[in-house]
Amino acid sequence: MCFPKSRLLCRNDCYPLPLGYLLLYAMAKLEKCTTPNRENTLALRDAIELLSGKWKVCILHNLANGALRFSDLKEEVVGITPKVLSKELLVLEQHKLITRTVHATKPITVSYALTEHAHNVQPVIQALATFGIQHRAIIKGQ
Question: Transcription regulation: is it a keyword of this entry (predicted)?
């Protein structure tokens, strides 16, 4: 399955987790699974669903170095619209992966930072970035 180049618009070689038809099919089959590894597989599915999408991993990757204001995030995550960025930040905040801090300045500024819980995801994101770099090298080498 081929994914469009627009899915690879993040800086720092950060790649989204695309959910193809095969993965959706496997997730549907998982609901009927009764093996002892079912809990681990369901937990994996939950993690994939949480981090899936075009932008969430890129946002978390950019927040790894510290808090960023909304406008800074918009510049760092190449290609994201303000509306989509707002929606994704809200979802990440609801899942307790980021915190939103409103600063009493004129004009009011809002900054976003990773929670302690989100720092546990950083090794996974770094592994994805490393894999993406290696994968690009292999594909370009063909």
Answer: yes
On the 0-12 / 13-18 / 19+ scale of CB atoms within 10 A, 125 is buried
> Rounded distance, CA 87 to CA 131, Å?
28
Report yes or no: 123 and 113 within 8 Å, Cβ to Cβ.
no
109 phi, psi to nearest 5 deg? -115, 150
14-23 tens-digit pLDDT: 444 444 444 5
Question: What residues does each domain of the chain span?
Answer: 12-141
Q: pLDDT tens for residues 81-123?
A: 999 999 999 999 999 999 999 998 888 899 999 999 999 989 9
Cα gap 135→53, rounded to integer Å: 19
Contacts of 31 (CB under 8 A, 6+ apart): none
Distances (CA, A) of 130 to 21, 35, 40, 125, 133: 25, 32, 24, 9, 5
- Going by the DSSP 8-state scheme, the letter that residue 54 receives in this structure is S
CATH (one of 1.10.3720.10, 3.40.50.2300, 3.40.50.620, 1.10.10.10) for 12-141: 1.10.10.10
